[in-house]
Design goal:
- By secondary structure, the chain is mostly beta strands.
- The chain has one domain: Sandwich (Immunoglobulin-like).
- It has 1 helix and 8 strands.
- Strands 1, 2, 3, 4, 5, 6, 7 and 8 form an 8-stranded mixed beta sheet that branches.
- The longest helix has 16 residues, at about 1-15.
- The N and C termini lie far apart (about 55 Å).
- About 25% of the residues are buried.
Length: about 140
Amino acid sequence: MRARLALAGALLATAAATAPTAHAGAGDGLSVTPHGTVADDGTVTLTGSYRCLDDSAGPVFVSSTLVQDDRSSGIGGTRAVCDGQVHEWTNSAVVREPGYRPGEARVKATLMQLTAQGPLGLPLPGFLAVKESAVTLR
């Protein structure tokens, strides 16, 4: 059993080391709307737009992370449609204890594609576009 775990760990490390760090196409892009919302129940909503050209190698997602003071949380994920057109994205999540408050924050949005890598065909991320932006939560 330990030999299997060691082998699996070695394969995962090899796959992670060979994962693409960036393979953005000329038409791939991402934006973040300069304001988001935080509701009374703790629901945070962030929006923006994206454009990607090709998802034939694997599914593409728009993910977002919100940072305010010393708090950082992933806020949802949206499956992208890669047809060369500009599309809107909206990510939401309920964040409590401690929650976010109206005011200044930062968002890091990522247009990421999962592609099968290595001998096991493990899905690993490739980053098509990254956008960091200041936002105001309302």
